[in-house]
Amino acid sequence: MPPSIPAKRATWSAKLALLRDSLDELDSAMQAGRWEQLAPLAAHADRAMHDLLAHPGHPSPDDAEALRQTLNLADALQTRAATRQQQILPLLQAWKTTKQADEPTP
Fold first, then answer.
1. Above pLDDT 90, what percent of the chain?
2. CB under 8 Å to 67, separation ≥6 — which residues?
């Protein structure tokens, strides 16, 4: 996971970079199928987003464009995660049903 930046020293740009790094790492884990890493990476990205939104400063014009791109990436990751969940849910339900059918009745 990317290192955290102490809140008092971090600039708006640094917090944005931390968020982008977190989302890039989450994207990489999703693409590689490292499902066990998704929950902690998503939590880290969520904390980075909250830290950025809580920062008292304002973005420069360059930061504003980088933020737009970062938010587009976040949206794409959420869409991909929702699509994947819709694909996997019927498989999990079928597996549970099959597993329950294989258990002997008491």
1. 55
2. 16, 59
